[in-house]
Write a structure and sequence with these properties.
5 strands, Muramoyl-pentapeptide Carboxypeptidase, domain 2, alpha+beta, about 30% helix, 5-stranded mixed sheet
Length: about 140
């Protein structure tokens, strides 16, 4: 049985990576980031409740090796457990607009319409979150 890290997300989802699987890259959350990952999953629970549909996690925590392999930013919040790429089980643009207009706090919300997913990141201190939203 997979351990839950929040109401809606499991420990398995925190390390999911098709690229990692394909390349044999170990992607385990280090002990010093487990609290950060649980915090992000709890924040994501709020997004999940807002949308009212399941959200398939494409990428959550990424080791530096995995982040390099996927071409992630050198400063990616995925490496500190603060970002999630996910596909909601609803129209992508509707989900993006719903989150954007909801009043929920986040640091960045990015829609990738061609790839079919959303990226959301959070900060430890919610008062420093920029509520940036844009399309890539």
């Amino acid at each position: 049985m997979t351990k839950k890290v929040s109401n809606y997300f499991t420990s398995k989802e925190t390390v999911v990576s098709s690229t990692g699987d394909k390349l044999g890259i170990k992607n385990a959350v280090p002990d010093n980031l487990k609290k950060a990952v649980a915090y992000t999953a709890a924040r994501m629970d709020t997004v999940r409740l807002l949308l009212g549909v399941p959200c398939v996690v494409n990428s959550f925590y990424r080791s530096q090796e995995l982040n390099n392999a996927v071409g992630g930013s050198k400063t990616s919040d995925h490496m500190n457990g603060r970002a999630i790429d996910f596909t909601p089980k609803m129209n992508l643009r509707e989900a993006y607009n719903k989150i954007k207009s909801s009043g929920l706090s986040y640091d960045q919300l990015i829609i990738y319409p061609k790839q079919g997913f959303l990226h959301i990141s959070f900060k430890d201190d919610i008062t420093t979150e920029r509520k940036m939203s844009f399309e890539k």
